[in-house]
Amino acid sequence: MLEEVKKSLEASPIVKKGDYNYFVNPISDGVPTMKPSMLRELANVVKEHVDMDIDKIVAIEAMGIHLATALSLATDIPFVIIRKRQYGLEGEKEISQKTGYGSSKLYINDLKEGEKILLIDDVVSTGGTLISTLNALKELNIDIKAAVAVIEKGEGKKLVEKETGIPIFSVVKLDVIDGKVVIEKTIAD
Ligand SMILES: O=P(O)(O)OC[C@H]1O[C@H](OP(=O)(O)OP(=O)(O)O)[C@H](O)[C@@H]1O
């Protein structure tokens, strides 16, 4: 199980973004090409391990979108996207997002108080994105039933859990060591 995912991650090229070692992979970048079998397996793993008694899947642009789409098709649960584009719709909430290599704004729309959601993104690294997003969702009184970062890189997941009190489900834990992706564990181990 997850052999294809592990192989693909271990083959990831590493590029520098300043001092940050950024791995490039179909799950986190759509580059190189994503195989449907790998995307399907990831959606099924999340579906099997996470409580799907929710009203909506919520994805973070950009690289949560294909994961949310696959999960939505596997579960018939609708999804909404936290966008990097501002619409100015009534009730829109702006978030400031900071990663290990950049920052931007995110915009939450179409989530109602008390709605049961699963938040999904591709990677948790420094934890900056999930901390600001989960805290904003909490301020909106959204009922966060689960939070998923398919790939856990480094130690940021623990920080997110400490800062938000929300457990993060991840499928693969990895790090970049000596210019290579090293898999530390997967949910199947
Ligand atoms: O834990 P962190 O250090 O915050 O890193 C994780 C975030 O970094 C990436 O987003 P990014 O905004 O770079 O790009 P994307 O538009 O390609 O998803 C990734 O998709 C996560 O959202």
Topology:
Layout: H1 3-10, E1 14-17, E2 20-23, H2 26-29, H3 36-49, E3 56-60, H4 65-75, E4 79-82, E5 93-98, E6 103-108, E7 116-124, H5 128-139, E8 143-153, H6 156-164, E9 168-169, E10 172-177, E11 180-186
Parallel strand pairs: 3-4, 3-7, 7-8, 8-9, 8-10
Antiparallel strand pairs: 1-2, 5-6, 10-11
Helix pairs in contact: 3-4, 5-6
Question: Could you explain the architecture of this structure?
Answer:
- By secondary structure, the protein is an alpha/beta fold.
- The protein has one domain (3-186): 3-Layer(aba) Sandwich (Rossmann fold), CATH 3.40.50.
- It is built from six helices and eleven strands.
- Strands 3, 4, 7, 8, 9, 10 and 11 form a seven-stranded mixed β-sheet that branches. It has a two-stranded antiparallel ribbon with strand order 1-2.
- Strand 10 (172-177) and strand 11 form a beta hairpin.
- Helix 3 (36-49) crosses helix 4 (65-75) and helix 5 (128-139) packs parallel to helix 6 (156-164).
- The termini are close together.
